[in-house]
Structures are given as structure tokens and as C-alpha cells.
Amino acid sequence: MVTADIVGMPVAERLKLMETLWDSLCAADAGIASPAWHGEVLTGRLRRIDSGADAVTPWKEAKERIRNQVKTS
């Protein structure tokens, strides 16, 4: 498969291909380590949630809000 083949695919097929590729990277030990700053960002976000500085929205509510935003765009 070459880039031209991918570009010519319908969007739904390209998204499926991307998901398959991503799943294959996640399923196997691809030897890709997260950079240290990822852990620092996550730690900072957890601290903000624990301190009450940031609120957490349940996924069901967040998904509904996102879908409503997309509909109005």
C-alpha cells in the first residue's frame, strides 16, 4: 500500500485503517517509551483534579456535549 492508495480511500476506511494501526501499536510492545514530560503533565492534571482546581465530567456527559457541539458547527 502506498500513500496514493490511502489518500484515495473513503474517509471511513482511512479511519478504520488508522484505528487498526493504532491498535497494533498498543497491543504489542513496540518499544516506544512515553517521554518524561507525559508523566509530568499527567501528575499535574491529577493534582489539579484532587485539589478541586479542575472538574471531572463523566464520559457520558462529555460525549453528549461534544456531539451537541458538532451538530451546531
Characteristic key phrases:
2 domains; single chain; 4 helices; 73 residues; mainly alpha
Report what the structure shows.
By secondary structure, this protein is an all-alpha fold. The protein folds into two domains: 1-30; 33-73, no CATH class. Helix content is 71%, strand content 0%. The chain contains four helices and no strands. The longest helix has 17 residues, at 11-27. It starts with a helix and ends with a helix. The model has no long low-confidence stretch (mean pLDDT 89).
The percentage helix is over 70%
Spans with pLDDT under 50 lasting ≥5 residues? none
Total beta strand runs: 0
Beta-strand residue fraction: under 5%
Average pLDDT, to the nearest integer?
A: 89
